[in-house]
Design a protein that fits this description.
single chain, about 700 residues, alpha+beta, Helix Hairpins, five-stranded mixed sheet, five-stranded antiparallel sheet, 24 helices, globular, binds nicotinamide-adenine-dinucleotide, binds zinc ion
Length: about 700
Amino acid sequence: MQNPAERINELTDLLNHYNHRYYQDSVSEISDYEFDTLLKELAELENQYPDLRREDSPTLRVGGGITKNFETVTHRYPMLSLGNTYNEQDLRDFDERVQKGLYGEAYEYICELKFDGISLSMTYENGVLKRAVTRGDGTRGDDITANVRTIKSLPLKISSRTQNSDSPLTAHQLPITNFEVRGEGFMPISSFEKLNKDLEAADEPTYANPRNAASGAFKLQDSAESARRGLDCYLYAFLSDDEVFETHEQSLLTLKTWGFNVSPGWRKCADIDEVLAYIHEWETKRHTLPLATDGIVIKVNSMAQQRELGFTAKSPRWAISFKYKAENKAGVLKSVSYQVGRTGALTPVANLDNLNGDGKGLQLSGTRVKRASLHNANEIERLGLMLNDVVFVEKGGEIIPKITGVDVDARSNRLLSPIVYPTHCPECGTELVRKETEANHYCPNERGCPPQLRGKVEHFIHRKALNIDSLGEGKIELLFDKNLVQIPADLYDLTYEKLFGLEKVITDEETGKTKKIGFKEKTVENILKGIEQSKNVPFKQVLFGIGIRFVGATVAEKLAAYFRNIDALMAADFEALCNVPEIGGKIAQSIVDYFSEESNRDYIGRLRAAGLQFETDDVPVVAESNALEGKSFLYTGTFAGMTREELEAKIEANGGKLLSGVSAKLNFLIVGEKPGASKVDKATKLNVKMISEEEFLGMLSVD
Ligand SMILES: NC(=O)c1ccc[n+]([C@@H]2O[C@H](COP(=O)([O-])OP(=O)(O)OC[C@H]3O[C@@H](n4cnc5c(N)ncnc54)[C@H](O)[C@@H]3O)[C@@H](O)[C@H]2O)c1
Ligand SMILES: [Zn+2]
């Protein structure tokens, strides 16, 4: 057996790693349940061997951190975590501790839903929103006011209506005007789904769940982009220097009258049994809410009693959270279907039913589950799946259900058959290929496979490409069905006459509901207007929209700035392309291959004839010297003498290469004011030379 010291070390390192990934990178490498189980194991070991507890133990600290991408703000009142449990007995133990701590005084609880997003603290001065800060490490957080201000439901200035009168209270009439409110910033499930669809269309990585998506959105540098992500916030706490409220209940009611978005689901409970009833009631009901929740928060109602009970290093003694385990059910794998995505990648999808086999699917976390993604052939192999197997299906914070295992014991009396992976594309019949380095099989028929063609048009109209938002997925399907559009260039041949009156009934695969879409006058005018306006979209977006493999929005921007027009780009050979800052061999080869095909050149010709922008009118980078030739740079933070754009232009104008991340290839990291900790850390580890703004400018003057 491992000795306790080793295990404590191992757990501390592991949990600190998961915390970093979760809070800094918005990624969950393991489930919350697994994380909490490991944390509990560590806490118990530390209890037994207090001397072995490390100073950086995750049991002592709130998990988050500050990012240095934002101004750091010290919290007036620390922002702590919550103790958590997954079972009733722990809750009863908590209740007993409260009882003891209050020496027999009567007490009651408030139960609230536990919203799954990120904690926010908002400071109001004279009734006006001054600052919004993340929890960070509990003592200091990131100032993300600009992003939080994009939440429409959050009052920027308090005006409230009293119970008896309809006239708004001014700030002066409020009992208190300097205070802090706390709440959970979240992304509604509908916004989350829309965002992921958008990201997918732009070839960018998607988020595993709404929490990670919210966390990412609140920490964007560009608040206009935050605004587009549809964030929201529920408030659940009030803090001030004076004792304003006697109970938590009063504070919630008052916050509501002041115009704050307080979740309506909370309830006062007289004892722990009522708390448990609340927990059972919401176990499935919570799935009908428009946002993700992962449990219940239980708080002692009286503020005086809260003060009496106090805090541990990490969390209040007067509150605890009860977390629901991801629900797991057994079902039957009826069949596997195969979907072809817009890149031609094949995804196997499990078709499931309940054990009764009545065709109704599995009732899981409040929804009916009939399908689960199997990702790729490796996953099927890893699970050892056979058709007609009894499988365990889980639906957690991940929203999309997954198969977690096979009930091998159930096999003896079942008729099983192997899953035969297709050799040909189910959509177009072309033989599938599988590259050595990739897990997925692909259909190589880029130019004839219907989902791939549709995908290209969807990519073309994307906001970051030609931005034709009057055409959605359903409308494109209709255009495909009627043979009006095959490739994006066909969009420019559409006319009012061709579009008017088109109709189609669409059936939702999940719900079976049907909906009719038809092109009436207004729709047609909008579509044509959107297409017309796309002719003004800048070259870099057109280049992205064309859909050359590996040419994402950022690469397209670099190429457009460097070559300035399509002719120069098409004329560039592999070497010339590799000379462009940040363009590597893989991208260069893909571009060369693309333009070597006649059909692609014809396609560009058609788009050009339609009047799209194929040259850029941004100010070009004028070469100044070759002082930086052969050297690569990256910067972090802000600079006194120039903007980031000017710095980038300086690097390029003097022959330097700008890299997008810290790697062993990087020669210099230019470190400005408030540098990013992760870049500096990584540069230190990799021994990358770090220089100041002055040192960089000094490099320019030497010959
Ligand atoms: N999967 C992973 O890799 C990983 C890594 C780190 C942490 N985690 C998870 O995160 C947890 C720790 O996160 P945490 O410290 O934020 O604790 P927590 O999320 O378990 O609870 C505290 C938070 O709950 C939120 N909350 C939501 N509704 C609330 C309400 N009505 N009242 C009060 N607070 C409410 C607040 O933001 C508060 O900060 C872990 O227990 C684990 O489950 C997972
Ligand atoms: Zn195909």
